[in-house]
Structures are given as C-alpha cells and as structure tokens.
Design a protein that fits this description.
Structural class: alpha+beta
Number of domains: 2
Strand order of the largest sheet: 3-4-5-6
Largest sheet: 4 strands, mixed
Number of helices: 11
Order of helices and strands: EEHHHHHEHEEHHEHHH
Distance between the termini: 35 Å
Helix content: 40-55%
Oligomer: single chain
C-alpha cells in the first residue's frame, strides 16, 4: 500500500503497510490526466520485492520490448532502469532490482523471444546456459543484390551474437507453420548466409523440450566458442523455476 504521508497510514487486517521517506528521483511519479501514477522505472522497483528474480527479469525485458525497428515505442529502456535503480539506494527492492537489471536487454519483440533469451543467456546460478552476449533483433542491412531477393533493404535477427556472426531465429507455430512461411524462412536464412551470418533455428517444440533445448544450447556454445560447464548446485532448481515461466504446454501451438 502506498500512502502520501505517515499520517495517512492506517491498519488493515492481514496487510503490512510500509512507510518510506527516502527521496525519489524526478519524474518517478508522473501525472496522467488528473492522476499521479508510478513511472515504469518506479513500478519495476516496487515489484522487485514481490516478484521472483526470474519474473522480475522477464518484466524488465517486456518493459524494454518494442516492435521491430521502432525503439521509440518501448515503455522504457535498460539504460533508464539502470540509472533509476542506481539513484534509489536504500529503497525496498533495490538489491534485487540492481541484480535483475544486469540481465535485461532492449529490443525483444515477443515474450517467447524474451524467454528463449533468458534460458540461453542467464548465468548458471539463475538456471540459464550462460551464453551471454546476444542482442535482440539485430538489424542486418542487405547488400544491393540481395535486397531484390527479399523485397526489403534490411531484416532482423531474433537473437544475434555479433562477434560470432550467429543469428538465432525463434520459429513459433503461429508465424512459421505453413509451407509458404517455412519456404520464406529458408530463403531468408540463405540470404543471411550470403552476408556471412550463420543461422540457427529454435522451434517452439525444441524450447519446450528440456533435452532438445539443452542440445540446442550446446550447439550454440560450440559455434560461439564457449563451453557449458555447469558446476553450481543451484542450476537444476533455478532452471526448473525458469522453465515455469513458459506458457502452459496446452497453448504451445500458439506461443509467439
């Protein structure tokens, strides 16, 4: 519960009312019409004490998500979250928020991309495979001769390891199930290879199958020159918690 002053506090059975008199950065609370509401950055901090670390990272990824090539449509950014959290030491949830921001990246185009990113890139202590360094929806500007092939001057790689020139494409059932769509994916992949970019495809079935997903991660690791050597005892419990964020398997065919 949020109150405007100590004098406004009241008791409610079964509820804990906290009072914090530490200052907030400018525009932490913004005015929408005739109402004062928490900014996205303040909301992230407030929820840090309520959410698990995995859910908090996912929230941050979604707050920083935006349609392809339109970063101005993101609700906030990793830079804004990091700056805000750094300016509120002592506030409830600060420690967890600071930890979560480290693993947030701008530019996810869907919740499934965010979850695939978390599984592949989070450190072993958080249940991921530790293949950090990927960015969302990297823009690839096509060479003149290839523009005509795809009918566009650019395309985006769902996840991209720039140093290794590796693109990972998440193939959902929703947008990649028909023969026509699969054919377009194949053409697009070959065009990217013409530009020196290797392409690996991660399907929904692979993402949901623990063993298949692990095999995929090891193949990614080999390509980018890393080794998955899990030594922490926390991994298996944290990996299960991370996988619990995936939508129910009954709706897997619609996951995107």
């Amino acid at each position: 519960m949020t109150v405007s002053s100590n004098g406004a506090r009241f008791s409610v059975n079964g509820k804990k009312v906290h009072s914090c008199e530490l200052p907030l950065p400018p525009r932490a609370v913004v005015k929408l019409g005739d109402k004062l509401v928490a900014s996205p950055e303040l909301m992230f901090l407030q929820l840090a004490s309520e959410l698990s670390i995995h859910r908090l990272i996912l929230l941050g990824l979604q707050l920083c998500s935006h349609p392809l090539g339109q970063p101005h449509r993101a609700i906030t950014s990793k830079q804004k979250l990091r700056t805000f959290v750094a300016r509120v030491p002592g506030h409830r949830g600060h420690r967890k928020a600071s930890r979560a921001v480290k693993y947030i990246e701008n530019g996810s185009a869907s919740i499934m991309e965010s979850l695939a990113y978390m599984i592949l890139t989070l450190p072993h202590a958080l249940g991921g495979y530790g293949l950090n360094g990927a960015v969302f929806n990297y823009e690839v500007k096509l060479k003149a001769e290839l523009k005509k092939r795809l009918g566009t001057h650019r395309c985006f790689a769902d996840l991209f390891y720039e140093k290794a020139r590796l693109a990972i494409e998440y193939d959902s059932f929703t947008h990649h199930s028909s023969p026509t769509e699969q054919g377009r994916d194949a053409i697009r992949s070959e065009v990217l290879r013409r530009q020196g970019i290797e392409v690996m495809h991660l399907s929904t079935i692979q993402l949901y199958d623990t063993d298949a997903c692990r095999d995929f991660a090891h193949n990614v690791a080999r390509y980018i020159g890393k080794r998955i050597d899990i030594r922490t005892k926390k991994f298996h419990a944290m990996h299960r918690a991370l996988r619990e964020l995936l939508p129910e398997s009954s709706s897997v065919t619609g996951a995107d």
